[in-house]
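Mods, move this if it's the wrong board.
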Amino acid sequence: MTIKLPASSLKPALNRALLFINQAKLGLSPLFGCFYLEGDKCSVYNGETGAVLNFPFSVSEPTLLFPFELAKLVNATRELAEVSLTFDYKAMQLIVVTPTIKTKIRLLNVATQDVSSLAGIKVPADLVPFEMEGLYERVKRATFSCSADASLPLLQGVRVTPQSICSTDQRGVWREQATSPQAFVIPRLMCEHIERALQEPSRVGVSSDQLYLFYSDMMCFGRRLAEDHKYPDVDGAFDKVVRAVADQAVVTFDREALTERLTALLSLPQYEGAVLMKCTAGELSVQNVLGVGVETESVISMPVQSTADFADVCINGQLLLEGVSRFSQLAVKADGRRIAFWNATQEYAVSRRAVQ
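Not the wrong board. Structure tokens:
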């Protein structure tokens, strides 16, 4: 069986399927690194997430192969150049011919492998998918505030509630308006898949143990976290804590200018990453906190609009930059514990530090 097609038609599906292969898990199961082809469908599963993709060709019988060399050959081929794929099931090999090279890739014997994890990828019959407008963009924006700590897998994900999409790393909280008929957490790896897809899923499905994303040419899925209901109540944190506390001062600033200045300041040493903010007579200044081993004093300043003067506002500089780079106003809360940023649809709040 020989298939001939331009490299440009094969690359997108091939590379998208590769996103679901985890080479680090091959020791657990070789199938976690395989493509399973049946008809014009390609199934992949890495033990945590998987997908069923539409491929631009059909095979005559179930086919199992490691795709890494195939991907290298196709990606190295010019877009309009022809790629020839010959599936020789007697010799158990795939012969790949491009204008520059001919390669034989071994096929795995489907009959000797337990392919149930690949061939058995099915959407539950009782699943009721729903639409979520703007999921791709909102997840991409929310991930900056996810925890980097792998020991906190719940906080590495993005939380979807009936009214918002939110995230937290226990130092800051992010929320953006959104609507969903169900509440769930999108695990870190699924967030990465959503970002790499570079397009909006048409529908979302949630079962008791899986999360499903449907695209025009692909269905991908991943395990739901067993205790995703224990995700912190970010909506409550904003509504009952951040918004409920009066503002000591509200500062409106030029986002681009302050981001540039703050980035320069943070390129220099600070004691434990801390900076001190103050505002006097419409001028905001930010200084690095000095400590042992940090003896070079650096200060940035710029004119702003502020409802009140303040001083000795100590905060982690990187958290401040995360907010400044996304918003054009901030509020120093009157309880001395938080700084809040917001616009019409998004909110971000960070914890202040004790003055050094």
